[in-house]
């Protein structure tokens, strides 16, 4: 069985993301909020999937482009965004088919944790940013990863972990790489980024009403899941 085979469940995954708590009411609004006023800014969506983040940024006035390793996901993104948006098939962690300093911002929502080594990925994302450009992204929260790991797991290790996702009536094996917080921040600074924001945001509007059972025991209205960041090309 192939691992992380988004082509095999692209339609089901995209449909789930339209209404799910973790995507529609948490990860996506958090990224858009961190991006702020994007009117007129040229933004690259790294690992764009079916294009919901790119669409949300375009609705706020950004000029968007994207890439993904999944042909199935890119087909859905083209359907959503139209032929006027540049969408390329490319692997995060390999050479990207975009010019140097071509973007004001890059968004990388929940994609870096698929990679064991971030060195090349961050170097390429930095390359395509203009001087002073921003990398806005999210990864699995290292504290959550550690708390859900088997007993005795070394928090300080960079380690692979696997999950079964059930989508479209089939089980799909997904593998990610967990790492401690200092390894995340060290990777960013070593790649030539300044860390401006590290965020553990509240869910977006409507989350509590849509998922009351999740928030029944959470008086703050918040929960811990992903870690968000805004970096600037130094």
From TrEMBL:
Out of the domains of life, which is the source?
A: Bacteria
InterPro entries in the record: Methyltransf_11, SAM-dependent_MTases_sf
Q: Name one GO molecular function term.
A: methyltransferase activity
Domain named Methyltransferase type is located at: 44-136
Which of UniProt's keywords are assigned here?
Methyltransferase, Transferase
Q: Which GO terms describe its biological process?
A: methylation
Alphabetized SUPFAM superfamilies for the sequence: S-adenosyl-L-methionine-dependent methyltransferases
Instruction: Output this protein's name.
Output: Methyltransferase domain-containing protein
Tell me what organism the protein belongs to: Promicromonospora aerolata
Q: What is the lineage of its organism?
A: Bacteria, Bacillati, Actinomycetota, Actinomycetes, Micrococcales
């Amino acid at each position: 069985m192939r691992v992380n085979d988004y082509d095999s469940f692209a339609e089901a995954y995209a449909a789930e993301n339209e209404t799910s708590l973790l995507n529609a009411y948490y990860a996506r609004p958090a990224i858009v909020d961190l991006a702020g006023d994007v009117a007129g800014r040229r933004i690259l969506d790294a690992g764009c999937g079916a294009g919901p983040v790119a669409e949300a940024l375009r609705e706020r006035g950004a000029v968007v482009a994207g890439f993904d390793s999944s042909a199935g996901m890119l087909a859905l993104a083209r359907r959503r965004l139209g032929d006027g948006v540049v969408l390329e098939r490319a692997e995060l962690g390999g050479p990207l088919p975009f010019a140097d300093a071509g973007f004001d911002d890059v968004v990388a929502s929940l994609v870096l944790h698929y990679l064991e080594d971030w060195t090349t990925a961050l170097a390429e994302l930095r390359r395509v940013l203009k001087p002073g450009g921003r990398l806005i992204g999210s990864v699995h929260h290292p504290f959550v990863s550690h708390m859900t790991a088997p007993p005795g797991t070394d928090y300080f290790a960079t380690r692979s972990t696997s999950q079964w996702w059930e989508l479209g009536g089939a089980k799909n094996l997904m593998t990610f790489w967990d790492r401690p917080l200092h390894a995340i921040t060290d990777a960013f600074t070593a790649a030539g980024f300044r860390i401006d924001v590290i965020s553990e945001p509240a869910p977006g509007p409507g989350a509590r009403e849509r998922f009351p059972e999740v928030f029944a025991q959470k008086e703050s209205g918040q929960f811990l899941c992903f870690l968000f960041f805004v970096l600037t090309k130094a």
